[in-house]
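Regression test attached.
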Amino acid sequence: SPTLEDEAGTLTSGEASVEAEPLPWEQPLDRENSPGLPPPLLKVLTNRHLPGAPRLQPDSRSLRYMKRLYKAYATKEGIPKSDRSHLYNTVRLFTPCAQHQQPSWGQVTGVLQSMDLLFNLDRITDHEYLLKSVLLYSLKNPVSFSSTPKCMCHLVVKEPECSSPFCFGSPRSFTFNLQFELRKNHKWIEIDVTTLLQPLVASNKRNIHIALNFTCLKNQQNPVQDELFDMARLMAPSLLVYLNDTSAQAYHRWNSLRYKRRHQLSPDQRDLFFYHKEEELTQDRKFSRRRR
Amino acid sequence: DEEIGDSKAKSPTMPVSYNLSEYLKQFLFPENECQLHDFKLSFSQLKWDNWIVAPHRYNPRYCKGDCPRLVGHRYGSPVHTMVQNIIYEKLDSSIPRPSCVPAKYSPLSVLTIELDGSIAYKEYEDMIATKCTCQ
């Protein structure tokens, strides 16, 4: 099965000493000629292999979050930690490719933010199945509250406009109200949108349009929250998706059939399972921070 | 039997200082026998560090060395290996001798920046050799 090296396509292939036969990705791109490399990988190779292919750079906050996730999941040598019992072997972080925000501010309850976000999820391959997804707000400084304010999030997901003449009916939209608490001293706010995104990703929708606003009960006595609202208002959330890559070159912690038989999880149990996992992860983080 | 008699007569006098375990070791584990070796590379050497954020160093390890004639249990090699050896020695030397290859691997977690600027954490199968065998 192709490994990282195949997928990457040595960028130094020009210097490679291979004179005899052309490297797989240097042959014509039609499927018949590519020896042993499945087509998607060939696509990746040509992308990566094209000299000077433009590579967009992620923002530093997203990179910092993913580096922390990497440290939580793998050792320094890059070996996945065996104490992780999650099913996913792939985590992707997307930043919105377009956003419009209408910061509005209620007197009684501070409307924290309303935004129109467009995410392009083309990097999710056909072999990757969505297990969990969260909207991720990052705060510049960990803000501590006297009490954990309750927040309400109102999400509308609009299916992409359909251009082909064979589409029937108007694009559907799903409306969700999510309750959540702003955790103390947290630099990130996670809003679980799994149930909202799963059907769209499963039906191969890759352009996700989300209109959201969330409000938090304003606390007169505690001006610091204004600071929180101001900060969060400025930043658009990223979209984090946890996936199970079923392709041959991905690492499968255990044989999924054996796992399913042993731990028959109904959908809501699975959510509970993930919720507890997240709790565990949060506890781990707190414990490790305290220990440090 | 005669040979043994002779060798007794001409047995090489083992130097007194040479201890038995060292003497035996040369038969049990000859120098360049098939075993695992390290090869630490950093992705910047491959000019991949513009899209591979972590890990900084990657040690795929590799197997190298001779496969002794009777490999037996030590390499966990199948009986087929001895058959292949016999074919090579007795019947047809164009048949290759068993070679020293990886038998087990461990996965590798990689953090990459995709072309569209999104960030991916992925776990790849079979990226680090952890055991060698002769086959």
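Expected vs. actual: identical. The first strand of chain A starts at residue 90 and ends at 94.
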